[in-house]
Amino acid sequence: MTNLPKDLVTKCRQKLLEAKAELLNRVKEARMDLHTTEDRGGDEGDQTMRALAESEFLSMTERLRKQLMEIEIALSRIESGSYGICEETEEPIEHDRLLAIPWTRLSIEGAEIRESMRKKYAR
């Protein structure tokens, strides 16, 4: 259980919910844009452009899906009372960091540890 100030948790929850809504809107808009420009036929150049647009759409939605998953995990951690604890060091995450990146699961020190481990084993 964390000892985060209630106002900090409230601000972070609000930021998370706003970010979630924004991500869902971006996916919806991108999907609508893709479908409105979808026009079968055309020459090879048109077909290539459609294929590239679809590929870009899939890449973007995958990135957004991962970010949405991080937001959902953070919201569930708020509900369970484990929000604000670094997964790497099990120490409290800095308040400024939580306000800047409310879905973070790592403190600055924890992020540095993960990065050094990633570099060490990324041969």
* CATH topology term: Four Helix Bundle (Hemerythrin (Met), subunit A)
- Structural class, judged by helices and strands? mainly alpha
Helix tally equals 4
Distance between the termini: 37 Å
**What integer is the average pLDDT?**
89
Q: What is the radius of gyration computed over CA atoms, rounded to a whole number of angstroms?
A: 19 Å
Please identify which CATH superfamily we are dealing with.
DksA, coiled-coil domain
Main sheet characteristics: none
> Helicity, in percent?
over 70%
CATH architectural type: Up-down Bundle
Instruction: Detail the poorly predicted runs.
Output: none
What is the CATH top level name? Answer: Mainly Alpha
C-alpha geometry: elongated
Count of individual domains: 1
Number of strands: 0
How much of the polypeptide forms β-strand, as a percent range? under 5%
String of helices and strands: HHHH
Main traits of this protein?
mainly alpha; 4 helices
Describe the structure in your own words.
There is one protein chain. The protein has one domain: DksA, coiled-coil domain (Four Helix Bundle (Hemerythrin (Met), subunit A)), CATH 1.20.120. It is mostly helical. The model has no long low-confidence stretch (mean pLDDT 89). 72% of the residues lie in helices and 0% in strands. α1 (6-36) packs antiparallel against α2 (44-80). It has helices at residues 6-36, 44-80, 95-100, 108-121.
